[in-house]
Amino acid sequence: MKVVVLGGYGVFGARLVRLLVRDGHDVVVAGRSEDKAAQLAAEAGAQPLIVDRQGDLAGLWALAPDAVVDAAGPFHAYGDDPYAFARACVAQGVHYLDLADDPAFCAGIGVLDEAAKTAGVFVLSGVSSVPAISSAAVAALAEGALEVDTISSAILPGNRAPRGKAVVESILHQCGCPFDVTIDGAKVPMRSWSRPDRFDLGQGMIRKAWMIEVPDHRLFAGTFGARTVLFRAGLELPIMNYGLAAFSWVRGKLGFGIPDWFVRLMLWLAKLLWPFGTDEGGMFVAVTARYPEGWQRRVWRLIARAGEGPFIPAVAARVVLRQPDAIGPGARPAVAVVSLAAIEAGMADLAVETERVEEGLTPLFVRQLGADFDQLPGPVQQAHQVYGPRRLTGRATVARGTSLLSRLIGVLFGFPKATDDIAVTVTMTPDGAGEVWERQFGDKVFRSVLRQQGGQMTERFGPFTFVLGLHVRDGTLQFPVLSGRLGPVPLPQFLLPQSIAHEHAEDGTFHFDVALKAPLTGALIVHYRGTLSGEKDRAAA
Prior knowledge:
Layout: E1 2-6, H1 11-22, E2 26-31, H2 34-44, E3 47-50, H3 58-62, E4 67-70, H4 84-91, E5 95-98, H5 103-107, H6 113-119, E6 122-125, H7 129-141, E7 147-156, H8 165-174, E8 178-183, E9 186-191, E10 194-200, E11 206-211, H9 215-224, E12 228-233, H10 238-254, H11 260-272, E13 281-291, E14 294-304, H12 312-322, E15 330-333, H13 340-345, E16 352-360, H14 364-369, H15 378-383, E17 390-400, H16 404-413, E18 419-431, E19 434-441, E20 444-453, E21 456-461, E22 464-468, E23 471-473, E24 476-478, E25 481-486, E26 489-490, E27 498-506, E28 509-517, E29 524-534, H17 535-540
Parallel strand pairs: 1-2, 1-4, 2-3, 4-5, 5-6, 6-15, 7-12
Antiparallel strand pairs: 7-13, 8-9, 10-11, 11-12, 13-14, 14-16, 17-18, 17-29, 18-19, 19-20, 20-21, 21-22, 22-25, 23-24, 24-27, 25-26, 27-28, 28-29
Helix pairs in contact: 1-12, 7-9, 7-12, 8-11
């Protein structure tokens, strides 16, 4: 095939050019820089072409290409008519692919579907790490699943991966911006570059990543029937990750734009840090689902070495162009358009290792309570069958103590203010062998982490950890506090808060009732009670 790669001398475009030349295609390196196009073409054994996507395309069409790949970007900045170039390709009867990771651009490519079918060509957006490779992995991992709960993915490049201006601009553009994430069947607002998590790529490589918006968030819930779709990205150096996280928080509060000089400054700073870290990066895709053999978490993970990580975003386009006749005409995001086996075959000549792992899942409360879990009423059991993020919503009343000690403790732990009626959301998220609980009363949020330790259930609020005597009595789930510590220092019994907390069901509805009293005085700290239900439970009802 004759393939034109627009932006063919960029970070990812140049690697796609080299892969396509290896595969025997007649490749054209296209872009606005004559020097850069000519240099790469000479090195790779391709042909240069000077062309501006927004200008006169006569020179491009004179070459009579079979396919054009847009590897230029940034795709969020394509103006009021973002699909003008793709439309021009369709009009010429030329297949179009792009490496877009912008969610709106990728998800909206279907506007060209009818025209592409009429022309007998395919138009694919997001033929890159996301959503093409990530969706291929999800499709393979979810094969045979009876229901899909959670899809969680991450991209984790090594620090010595090259960074182009378009890549840096794309990261900064969405940093701090709000977007919606599907969590337990509901759309939940999120801030880009927030909520970090850790990912195990195998072979001792564990990296942190932060939530960002990618096409997967808009496409995977519908395509795979997933109740939760999460995607994160992280850089290798903590100073860069936490710097972006801080920048995200500030920009989220102030909402300022990203000037070109700032993009260039950040690119310069990133290049200064290039000698640190490694040239090893990875990708992680996990599917939590119910299979005929039970609930499992299946993972596909990749490690790229020898600085070949930047080839990964180009692999999906390589695979598509190896068998273009297998792609039907029409315009659509590149979701599950090629198989994971084909993707892995497309990496065979790269310094890349992949593997799949799987584990059976048993929720935390089921493990802790054992056979007693079955004594709980249905709504309470459902609330604690946490295989992926579980989001419960309802109403509550809150009473607060008035003593000085009670008020101080209430402020320290972030408990909500007193009210007769307030909206409440509780999100329980699996975290390794435990769960993170986030309780939101109105706009007030406080968090805790529950874990099994030494056969007992613990709950940590910041530096305080309490051992809970979790048990079932008369169909209710009881949460008494047995002991506690501040960091590693045990707290004497007289300094422990008194906890009177339980969960039960009435008329098929989940109820919670939590009262905490101050140590020494026994004065009320906080008492909140109410009802909760999940989106899935409401749908079933």
